[in-house]
Write a structure and sequence with these properties.
The complex is a heterodimer. Chain A is an alpha+beta fold. Chain A has one domain (about 55-215): Glutaredoxin, CATH 3.40.30.10. Chain A is built from ten helices and five strands. Chain A has helices at about 1-25, 30-35, 70-85, 105-115, 120-130, 135-140, 145-155, 155-165, 170-180, 205-215; strands spanning about 50, 55-65, 90-95, 190-195, 195. Chain A has a five-stranded mixed sheet. In chain A, a hairpin with a 2-residue loop joins strand 4 (about 190-195) and strand 5 (about 195). The longest helix of chain A has 23 residues, at about 1-25. Chain A starts with a helix and ends in a 6-residue tail after the last helix. The relative contact order of chain A is 0.18. Chain B is mainly α. Chain B has one domain: de novo design (two linked rop proteins). Helix content of chain B is about 70%, strand content about 5%. Chain B contains five helices and two strands; from the N terminus they run ααββααα. A two-stranded antiparallel ribbon of chain B has the order 1-2. Classes of the chains: A alpha+beta, B mainly alpha. The interface of A and B includes residues 139 and 140 of A.
């Protein structure tokens, strides 16, 4: 009997040590990809776009991947907008990063999307981040989850990892934030239609955008 | 006696696994050591929280009770009594059903597998099987 308790004690110590190791050895999100850089350079990049270059209307969206309203907009309104406005050639949609400082991992998520975007998978990663938005509610380190999103988006993980650990697009993201601030963006999502801010007391719907676009593209009625 | 010792060891291992997942759910440590990345998908799904409490913490509570009952059942005054093993069998039945439901969610709803969760489900099933076997075994004699 005593031997059993000794064995149980040894097992408890071993498992306890393993637990401490597991909790302490986990990699954290690379700082290069989670913090604003000291210097901001303009690389000429002005956001990922969807839709025709010849569309008469351009919508610019300033968004934050951790923002629940942005996720709701992406999941509920965007599919209709894509179908009725973007696919039909009426609208070109431009996505600009505006990670809010209150969100712990939004800059990191923006960087993950940029690293996928470097491989031509931005919109796939955009959908992964917004459609599986549970990560934004937990406050847990999403490093592994974002890797699985990148994989699901079709990105090459080796290139993605290199990009993330180098913080390759940190400056680009901060440039987008500075640009948003200059345009008086103070929340997300904020939309500009052909350069004019869409002001609304509620989250705009796809119907709102259809009306706005129709108003801009329909010929004026004769009396 | 062997049954109760086995159950105590299994419950202790299960307790540490549930504690690891529970601490992670409470924000301690970084990403889960998982291998495939499925653990984070499971742990950040809406099924990872039940009635406002991380599911892993129900596991911590369950294993704590089973471990305590097994250790009490190993005391000389309790060795001949079937009460502890009956209680463990009842608790483990609930644990197996709960683990089965969680494994079903992983396989068919969340579509991701968390190795720690599966290991816990296997441990709970083993505890249940050992307790059933103990119930079919005559009680240990204790000489006056």
């Amino acid at each position: 009997m005593n031997r059993f308790y000794v064995m149980l004690g040894v097992l408890t110590l071993a498992l306890g040590a393993m637990l401490v190791y597991l909790l302490k050895s986990n990699p954290s999100a690379p700082r290069a990809a989670t913090e604003a850089p000291a210097t901001v350079l303009d690389d000429g990049f002005r956001g990922f776009t969807l839709g025709s270059d010849s569309a008469k209307v351009e919508v610019t969206e300033y968004s934050d991947f951790e923002c629940p309203f942005c996720a709701s907009f992406a999941a509920v309104q965007m599919p209709t907008i894509r179908e009725q406005l973007i696919s039909t050639g009426k609208v070109r949609w431009r996505y600009r990063d505006f990670p809010l400082p209150i969100h712990k991992y939004s800059r990191y998520a923006a960087h993950a999307a940029q690293c996928a975007g470097e491989q031509g998978k931005f919109w796939e990663m955009h959908d992964q981040l917004f459609f599986n938005h549970g990560w934004a509610q937990t406050g847990q380190n999403p490093t592994a989850l974002f890797r699985s999103f990148a994989k699901a988006a079709g990105a090459d993980l080796g290139r993605y990892d290199t990009c993330m650990s180098a913080g390759r697009f940190a400056s680009r993201i901060e440039f987008s934030v500075q640009e948003g601030l200059q345009r008086n963006v103070n929340g997300t999502p904020t939309f500009f239609v052909n350069g004019t801010e869409v002001r609304s007391s509620r989250l705009p719907t796809s119907d709102d955008f259809v009306k706005l676009v129709d108003g801009l593209t329909s010929p004026p009625r004769r009396k | 006696m062997r049954h109760r010792q086995t159950i105590a060891v299994l419950a202790l291992v299960g307790w540490f696994i549930a504690l690891y997942l529970g601490l992670h759910a409470l924000g301690f440590g970084g990403e889960l050591k998982c291998g495939t990345g499925g653990c984070d998908t499971v742990q950040t799904s809406r099924w990872a929280v039940l009635f406002g409490i991380p599911v892993a913490l129900y596991g911590v509570a369950g294993y704590t009770v089973i471990l305590a009952v097994a250790l009490v059942g190993l005391q000389p005054s309790w060795l001949a009594r079937r009460g502890p093993i009956l209680l463990i069998a009842a608790l483990a039945t609930g644990g197996v059903l709960f683990s089965g439901w969680l494994t079903y969610l992983e396989l068919f709803v969340i579509l991701a597998i968390c190795r720690w969760c599966v290991t816990s489900a296997v441990l709970m099933t083993a505890i249940w099987l050992v307790s059933l076997h103990a119930l079919r075994t005559p009680a240990t004699r204790t000489d006056p």
